[in-house]
Amino acid sequence: MKGNFEEEKDAGKKEKTPSALGKAWKKLDLDLPTALMMMKAALPPTIALAMYQATDVANTYSTLGYLVAIISILGFCIMPRAKFIQTMTMNVASVCIGAAVSLLELWSSVKAREHTTPPGLPPVAYRYNSSQSAVCGVWLFFQIWIVSTLKAKFPQFAFPTILYAIMVNVASTYGPQFQTVPQAESFVKRLLISFLTGLGIATGVSLFILPTSCRLVVTKEITGYVGALRGALSAHKNYFQSLETKDMFRQTTWTPGPDDKEEKLEKPKIKPEVKAVKKLTGTFTALHGKLHGDLPFAKREIAYGKMTPEDFESIFKHLRSIMMPMVGLGSLVDLFERVADLQHFEDGRDEETPDPELHARMVEDWNDLMKFLHGPFEDIITAMDEGLEHVLIRFGLAKVAKTQKTGGDAADAEAKGDLIKPGDAQFAASLEARSDAFYQGKETTLRHWLESKGIKLRDDFFHNSNADADPQNVCLQRIPTRQRQQRQLYVVLYIMFLLHSISRAILALVKFADEKDQATTTKRFIGPGKRRFRKWISSTFSSQDSSHEDEMTGAGLGQNNTVVYMGEAFRQRKDPEHLAPKNAWEKFGNFIRATSRFLGASESAFGFRCACATMTIAIIGFLHDTQLWFIEQRLVWAMIMVALSMTPTSGAALYSFLLRIVGTVIAMLAAWLIWYIPGQQTAGVIVFVWVFVSLGFYIPLKRMEFLIAGIIGVVTAVMIVGYELEVRKIGRAIAESNGQPAYEIYVLGPYRLATVVGGMFVAGIWTFFPYPITEHSALRQKLGGALYLSANFYSIMHETVMARIRGDEGDLNDKTSPGAKLEKARNKVFAKQMLTLQGLKTHSQMVEWEFPLGGKFPKTEYLAIIGYVTNIVNYTALLGYASNTFTHPSIVGEDTDPSTVQWFLDFRRIISQSNITSHEITSLLSLLSSSITSGQPLPPYLLAPQAFKLAKRLEAVDRDILSLRHITEPGYAAFAVLQISTRCISMDIEKLLNTVKKLVGELDFSFHVVSTQAGSGTSSSETLVKSSSKRSKAE
Length: 1035
Fold this sequence. Notes:
It is found in: Membrane. By secondary structure, the chain is mainly alpha-helical. It is 67% helix and 1% strand. It folds into 3 domains: 29-117 and 127-212 and 605-768, no CATH class; 214-253 and 269-300 and 303-347 and 361-399 and 424-463 and 476-526, Methane Monooxygenase Hydroxylase, Chain G, domain 1; 775-1000, Methane Monooxygenase Hydroxylase, Chain G, domain 1, CATH 1.20.58. The longest helix has 36 residues, at 81-116. Mean pLDDT is 80; it is low at 1-15, 259-265, 406-417, 467-480, 553-560 and 1014-1035.
């Protein structure tokens, strides 16, 4: 141990510490494509402001000129093409509907003015009319309520609902000033033209300037996915090599204190090899979730290219088949931690270990074994890495290295020899041979492991079916220290099974890449097809999964939030007060009752909050004494900030509120710099608008969790500068014709800042009132959803495993077969769970920024639950992956010789009698989900299901089934994975139950409310206790 400590100490000294500037630049993650997208994002407002300098344009838009620039920003031209077209279509529809409803609102308000004006007096004589203001206020409240409810229900409608809210706010606050219908019609027409012009500019920039397709985005994600897999393989290679010399049961390193004395130790740090494995595993699982969300849009695009939608889908399936065992391989670190817990190896010094000799002996055993496996592991990992490189070359995602571009001369051929490299035509055959060689080497490895335990084997031990021919007739249970050795054997088989499975999955992807070689494929027009187009239309109006990293939904979600649609079963409850309707009248009654359910839904509650927040500001503009002041001080922008900043799941995070205020202050300062640096010259100002907006769009591009803060900052800067350019162009007289005085920019800036901050402050108040939507409660609700998805996923996996054991899974190519339906449901729920867990981990990091009231938030328990759920999902997925062995064609095919797979047939027969999975786990996970979501305590005496103990169950049926002579059988390694997975799931279920009990509590029936003395003034519990004590004394 001392030597390892010194090695880690020396390694730490050799590492070069990067400079502060280098760290900052690396953290920015700024590259050329990002810089180009930032420049592209700044073009629409720049074009709008430049266009307004033409006299004809200025005369057309008049005092709404700067609004065109703001709407062009909200067009969000940097979205990929398919997402942009879908969002823009909804934007245009939303704006047109908003204009129509606004015109109806203004018409009704003008009629209200006419009906309440005294006869004989012209309407001009009455500037203010209370009836007209009341009508506008009612319309405003109702529309904001409805549109905000839709925003909460359908996150993909984020930008359309924001645009609708802006139009409604502007129309409703200016509506009380209109005295005739033509005035209202003219205003709505100019407002509609301004909105459509801004959206048109954004459309032109999106489609014609540096166009970005969803296919390109998905292609880059696939490249990143494969790169992350290669990085994970490299990290595992380094980790395996570290196991040759280091203590695998301790995941941390100790760093000496300032006096270089071992007694003074700083906080332990995670070993770099372990950290790299965990980081890269999280990277490709996150990319898997993002690719799952972006893939449908890539398949819907009309393009001129080589990859068809079916090709993208096939690549995703192949990557998923690689990811599953890779996640299991990444769990090796977790397995060693579990062994350390079982053996009570504390993550500290040797003197803290209960049995240092056992610890040292186990570490030495693993060190020797990993040294023996160094060659095979390095060869197969290198082969898999080259396989992924070959895939990138074939798909045109990476270029062939110059050293590989050999000509046709004899010298090159001789120099190349028999070495086959990625990109060569024979590479797939070479990879298959190396994968088979690794699999065949399993016998050598297992023979070495047995001999290291002192067991001498004959040469034909694994191939002689006659058990009596071997005098030892060794069986696993006869080895001394059976449990510890059995555990090591299963882990070795676990590693080898997963490495071989990964190599076969990569081989399948390599063969597919050879079939779809982009160098030989011709380009053609590719369309979505009628069926896919219909699905696109229907999905637009259905609940969808979304995250804060999605360009379409980011503005509708709060910071660090993810929305996953759990399905109808998650929220739908059976009504204990009503039976199912049986006739038309009862169905009509249910329809009426649905109204109350709508009003009581969380989405409707959010819409009501938004409407109240909006009216808190708008009421100033509807009262006689403050209406003019409202118009002059431009408080309509405070209302617009409410529409921008209020999100259904944002919570009351103080950090988010402060961040938006800081962003607004920076935007005001940027507006002053934009105006004064070029000497107030119009051309220079427009150029600097482009520069500063480009810089501002770094946040939406690289920090999507701060999207709202970034948009508010950019909009504020453009609003200030755009208004000053408008006043300069049309003149002060026309600019003030709408009742707003024209201020100099150094005065206008603080006014705009005050209105924006005021709007966000009101939004914050209505986030707290009448009851707070805290980050804590939002995290708890999401955690309940994650547990529900875990129960759903485990239930599907239970049916999958049982179907494979029974052999009635059917043909997976037949969409109507049970196996195909289970696979579709399994993949869908797994992708949802990956997205949910990713959002939970991100969300949990920001909870500590919330203003604390009362006791501390149990962050440790929540993080522990997230970790347990992640492990349960990973091991459940691995359980299903290993069960594929039961249906492998080489074992259960029609041409298979039964005598060669007799052990496997016996094994499958016996294991079908032992429940690998259990419905009890599904029930428990569902119960825990309900308890966490509702906050209700758990039932009393609730216990976790017993561990499966597959080995004991199988040996009870057939003692020879797990004999050591069978460990090279194809299904034995799969059994080891099943044994480890089921054991780990049971351990995590037990820990999960105990942690949830700490959070929500448990019903306690230890005291029964029973009156033992009639007419006694004491309580029942006191009587019970006293009576019990008296009886004990009497005895």
